[in-house]
């Protein structure tokens, strides 16, 4: 694992933890009703997708159980097709 891979994976972990903190104790109804809450979650998801895109191919091959392509695709959808983001996709 390269130094850059460690940095990007660190960003992924940090953002995932940030999302957990933001959503802690919140219900789905609260999430649906609060646009600011949804926006607070979207940014770290974008960061996770960008970091996943930047992880080396060698690192990705070592962890094929992680859906790298889908993670990056989610980031691309949020950034480039933002009008069609479906908050019900789990």
Task: Describe this entry's structure for a reader.
By secondary structure, the chain is mostly helical. The chain contains five helices and no strands. The chain starts with a helix and ends in a 10-residue tail after the last helix. The mean pLDDT is 93.
Give a short synopsis of this structure.
This protein has helices at 3-23, 28-33, 35-54, 57-62, 68-80.
The percentage of residues in β strands lies in under 5%
Give the biggest beta sheet.
none
- Shape annotation: globular
**Number of helices, where a helix is a run of at least 4 consecutive DSSP H or I residues:** 5
Radius of gyration: 14 Å
Helical percent range? Answer: over 70%
Tell me, rounded to a whole number, the average pLDDT: 93
Structural category is mainly alpha
When the domains are counted, the total is 1
- Low confidence ranges: none
């Amino acid at each position: 694992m390269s130094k850059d891979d460690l940095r990007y994976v660190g960003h992924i972990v940090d953002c995932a933890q940030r999302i957990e903190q933001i959503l802690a104790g919140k219900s789905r109804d609260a999430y649906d009703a609060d646009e600011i809450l949804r926006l607070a979650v979207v940014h770290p998801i974008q960061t996770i997708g960008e970091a996943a895109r930047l992880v080396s191919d060698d690192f990705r091959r070592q962890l094929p159980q992680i859906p790298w392509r889908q993670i990056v695709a989610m980031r691309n959808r949020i950034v480039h097709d933002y009008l069609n983001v479906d908050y019900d996709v789990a």
